[in-house]
Amino acid sequence: MNRQDAVNAFEAYVSVFDLNDGMMKLKHEHSYRVADLCAEFAKSLSADEDLAYRIGLVHDIGRFEQARKYHSFLDYQTMDHGDFGAALLKENDYVLNYADPNEADIMIQAVRNHNKYAVEEGLNETALLYARILRDADKTDILYLRGCHSYDSILKIDRDAIEHGTVSPYVYSEAMQYHVIISSKRVTKLDRVVSMACLVYDMNWTYGIKTALENHYIEKLFDLYDYQNAEEKQQIKDIREHVLNYMKMRLQEAE
Ligand SMILES: [Fe+2]
C-alpha cells in the first residue's frame, strides 16, 4: 500500500465534509502533521515509516463525523472518536483503503487506542509499537496546536474564565504527581490548559518531548493567557516549572 493511495482515500472521505469549517480544517491539517510526525518517530525507532504515516493520517477519521454531529471535540460529552474511527475502518473492510491486509489490525488498534487514558491490554508487540508511536505523535501536535492563538477561538475556549480562574485541587495534585489528567475530571477552564501540558507525562519516547522543549510548546501554551489572580499565578508557575523539569529529566535519562 503506498502513501498516495491512502491520501487519495482520505481526501475522498473528508470531501463530503465542509473543510472550510474551522473545526474540520483543524483536524484535516492535524491529520497530515501527525502523519509526518508518526513517520519521523517510526524512522527513529527503525519501524515502518510508511505504515506509521498512514496510521497517523487516519487516526482522527472519527473527528469529522463528531464535528458535524456535535460541533464539539469533547469525547466524554459526545462520542469516543477513537472507537468511532476504529469501527468505521472495520466496517466492510474500509481499512483496506489505507492498509494491506496484514497491517489492518495494527491500524485499527492504533486508532482505537490513540485517545484513551492508557493503551488497552493484550495488544501484540507490533500493534503496541504503532499505537505508542501514534499516541506520542498526536500529543506532540496537540501541544503545538495549543500554543497557537487560533486554536482557542475555534474551540471557543473562554479566555476570561481561564484568566480569572484557578486550577482545581485534583488537577493541581495530579499535575504535580506527573499524572495525565482524565478529561472528564477537569473542573475549571484553566484545568483544560493544565491538562494539555500534562500530556508530556504520557510520552513513551523522548522525540515528542524534545520537539516540545526545543519549540517551547509548554511555555507558549501557558503564555497565551494573562493570569489575573495571585493564587492562579502561583499554580501556573509551579506546574509550568514542574512539567519543564520533567521534560528535561526525561531527555537527560535518555542520553
Ligand atoms: Fe484524536
Proper CATH architecture of the largest domain: Orthogonal Bundle
Order of helices and strands: HHHHHHHHHHHHHH
Distance between the termini: 36 Å
Query: How large, in whole angstroms, is the Cα Rg?
Result: 18 Å
Tell me the number of structural domains: 2
Strand content: under 5%
The number of distinct β-strands equals: 0
Question: How is this structure best described in words?
Answer:
- This protein is mainly α.
- It has two domains: 3-143, Hypothetical protein af1432; 157-254, no CATH class.
- Helices cover 65% and strands 0% of the residues.
- It is built from 14 helices and no strands.
- It has helices spanning 3-14, 22-44, 49-58, 61-70, 81-90, 104-113, 125-146, 149-154, 159-163, 169-176, 189-197, 206-214, 217-223, 230-254.
- Helix 2 (22-44) packs antiparallel against helix 3 (49-58) and helix 12 crosses helix 14.
- The two termini are 36 Å apart.
- The mean pLDDT is 94.
- Residues 59-60, 81, 114-115, 138 line the site of fe (ii) ion.
Explain the layout of strands and helices:
Elements: H1 3-14, H2 22-44, H3 49-58, H4 61-70, H5 81-90, H6 104-113, H7 125-146, H8 149-154, H9 159-163, H10 169-176, H11 189-197, H12 206-214, H13 217-223, H14 230-254
This protein binds fe (ii) ion.
Quickly list its features.
mainly alpha; Hypothetical protein af1432; 2 domains; 14 helices; binds fe (ii) ion
Would you summarize the structure shown here?
The protein has 255 residues and is mostly helical.
